[in-house]
């Protein structure tokens, strides 16, 4: 457990929205209210959940759980009700913070706690078997659930120390930028915004600007309005933000060179999945100071990061000071964490090396390059191995393409499933984009065919994870007939 408030300056705004701001005194008062409410529960040590939009109160709830050593389980808004219930049952969640009482009741939380806030705290009548009763889980402050590629999300167990170490390393890496305002653009239920956003900004003495997600352009589970996001950056005078690659692409297509609305930005981190080097180059030419990083929930988020001081486009940056990286004999990236990591309901490993499932290499200067997912490797009928993320990232660097997935396992040629960036993109433009990308690829990794997808790959239709990665099996199933027709015709 850790009291984050001990580290914070007392004479400035720490958290703000468009209509309120909190200094240290206001934040302390809110955290004290929350700690009293959490201790007044029937089972004060049991895990608590939060299912809510971004808000100052959400951050205060998280800090109160750190202070008490209680496990907090953020329930992502993009999960299905079935996934929420799985999360509740697997953690033994005893109470939940929600904005609407009906949401709590529908999930089995019907007793209202006396806490009064914009969010309300509801408890269960029956006590589930709680993870807090298991000795090896007593140190867990947060269980972050990754949607992954299966219907049942996996819970990664993290301690306060685990998260804090990453935030300190990020603070040290970015200190020279003197960032004073960070805008939370990703949902707080996503660990990346917790650690690299909220905690890092607090440690840097920066103000966290936390708006409801629709005010920064995020609507529903996967719709992003780049113009709204740009306007929020201008309105709040934000100096740093964190984006997913598809969000960066949308912003690039909606801004002009040296766009005055983005002039306050000092640092834009992009991560979640591989980002096209061309997209980063284009963004920088427009005046957007974007830097790619790499991380995973099992390591409490960020592992490596490019910065203005140490930067190489195409790489995921150098490892943070508290990280060691090695490459296994098969090319898999392995990361050493100071604190052992484990999944909920699985025993903790004594080996602190985490096998990431990602393929990559370290160059002679120590920059990390990501080639793709180990399990995604396609083997063509000529026996060539291709990580589909390679041609996909090149396609994603072309303005007319919003999303791409490359397939072709056991086939003589690869095929690209293309989501155009708007309805105005013509088949001729898509063909030219594929020709352009093919010129930079060896023959075995080139795409001989393409299919225009019927709809974008989103969380809501089950075709993408929360960080924008395509759910490959689901997409393959949906387009199997078209793919069979293409390959049967060209054999």
TL;DR?
The chain is of the alpha/beta class and 491 residues long. 29% of the residues lie in helices and 24% in strands.
Commentary on this structure:
With 491 residues, this protein is α/β, with parallel strands linked by helices. Helix content is 29%, strand content 24%. The strands form eight sheets. A five-stranded mixed β-sheet has the order 4-3-5-7-6, with helices on both faces. Strands 14-15-16-17-18 form a five-stranded mixed β-sheet. The longest helix has 16 residues, at 24-39. The N and C termini lie far apart (61 Å).
Give the overall shape, derived from the CA principal axes: globular
Report the sheet with the most strands, covering strand number, pairing sense and barrel closure. Answer: 5 strands, mixed
State the end-to-end CA separation. 61 Å
Instruction: Classify the beta-strand content into a percent band.
Output: 15-25%
Structural class: alpha/beta
Helix content: 25-40%
- Number of E strands: 28
Instruction: Walk across the major sheet and give the strand order.
Output: 4-3-5-7-6
Based on CA atoms alone, the radius of gyration comes out at 23 Å
Secondary structure tally, helices: 13
Calculate the mean pLDDT score and round it: 90
Low-pLDDT windows of residues: none
Layout of secondary structure:
Elements: E1 15-16, E2 21-22, H1 24-39, E3 48-51, H2 56-68, E4 72-74, H3 81-91, E5 95-98, H4 101-106, E6 109-112, E7 120-124, E8 140-146, E9 154-159, H5 160-174, E10 181-183, H6 191-203, E11 207-209, E12 218-219, E13 223-224, H7 226-236, E14 240-243, H8 245-253, E15 267-270, H9 277-285, E16 290-296, E17 301-305, E18 318-319, E19 324-327, E20 332-336, E21 342-343, E22 353-362, E23 368-373, E24 378-379, E25 385-386, H10 389-395, E26 401-407, E27 414-420, H11 427-438, E28 447-452, H12 472-478, H13 480-490
Helix pairs in contact: 1-2, 5-6
């Amino acid at each position: 457990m850790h009291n984050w408030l001990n580290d914070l300056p007392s004479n400035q705004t720490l958290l703000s929205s468009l209509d309120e701001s909190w200094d240290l005194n206001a934040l302390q008062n809110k955290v004290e209210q929350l700690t009293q409410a959490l201790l007044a529960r029937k089972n004060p040590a049991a895990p608590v959940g939060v299912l809510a939009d971004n808000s100052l109160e959400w951050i205060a709830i998280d800090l109160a759980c750190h202070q008490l050593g209680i496990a907090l389980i953020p329930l992502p808004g993009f999960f299905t009700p079935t996934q929420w219930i799985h999360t509740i049952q697997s953690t033994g969640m005893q109470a939940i913070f929600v904005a609407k009482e009906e949401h709590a009741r529908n999930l089995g939380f019907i007793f209202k706690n006396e806490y009064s806030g914009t969010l309300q705290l509801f408890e269960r009548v029956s006590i589930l078997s709680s993870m807090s009763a298991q000795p090896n889980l007593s140190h867990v402050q947060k269980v972050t659930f990754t949607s992954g590629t299966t219907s049942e999300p996996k819970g990664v167990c993290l301690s306060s120390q685990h998260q804090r170490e990453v935030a300190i390393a990020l603070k040290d890496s970015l200190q020279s930028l003197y960032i004073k305002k960070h805008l939370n653009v990703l949902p707080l239920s996503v660990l990346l915004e917790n650690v690299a956003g909220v905690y890092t900004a607090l440690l840097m003495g920066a103000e966290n600007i936390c708006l409801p997600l629709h005010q920064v352009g995020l609507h529903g589970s996967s719709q992003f309005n780049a113009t709204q996001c740009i306007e929020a950056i201008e309105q709040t005078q934000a100096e740093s933000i964190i984006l997913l690659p598809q969000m960066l692409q949308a912003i690039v297509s909606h801004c002009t060179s040296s766009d005055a609305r983005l002039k306050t930005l000092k640092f834009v981190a992009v991560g979640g999945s591989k980002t096209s080097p061309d997209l980063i180059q284009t963004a920088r030419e427009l005046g957007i100071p974007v830097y790619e990083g790499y991380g995973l929930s099992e390591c409490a988020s960020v592992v490596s990061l490019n910065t203005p001081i140490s930067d190489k486009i195409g790489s995921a940056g150098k490892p943070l000071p508290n990280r060691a990286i090695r490459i296994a004999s098969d090319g898999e990236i392995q990361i050493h964490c100071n604190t052992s990591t484990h999944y909920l309901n699985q025993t903790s490993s004594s080996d602190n090396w985490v096998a990431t499932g990602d393929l990559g290499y370290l160059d002679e200067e120590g920059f990390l390059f990501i080639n793709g997912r180990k399990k995604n490797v396609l083997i063509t009928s000529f026996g060539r191995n291709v990580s589909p993320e390679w041609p996909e990232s090149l396609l994603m660097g072309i303005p007319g393409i919003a999303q791409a997935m490359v397939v072709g396992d056991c086939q003589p040629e690869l095929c690209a499933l293309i989501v155009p960036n708007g309805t105005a993109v013509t088949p001729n433009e898509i063909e030219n984009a594929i020709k352009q990308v093919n010129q930079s690829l060896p023959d075995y990794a080139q795409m001989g065919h393409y299919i225009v997808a019927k709809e974008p790959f989103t969380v809501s239709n089950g075709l993408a994870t929360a960080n924008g990665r395509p759910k490959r099996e689901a997409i393959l199933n949906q387009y199997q007939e078209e793919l069979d027709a293409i390959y049967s015709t060209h054999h």
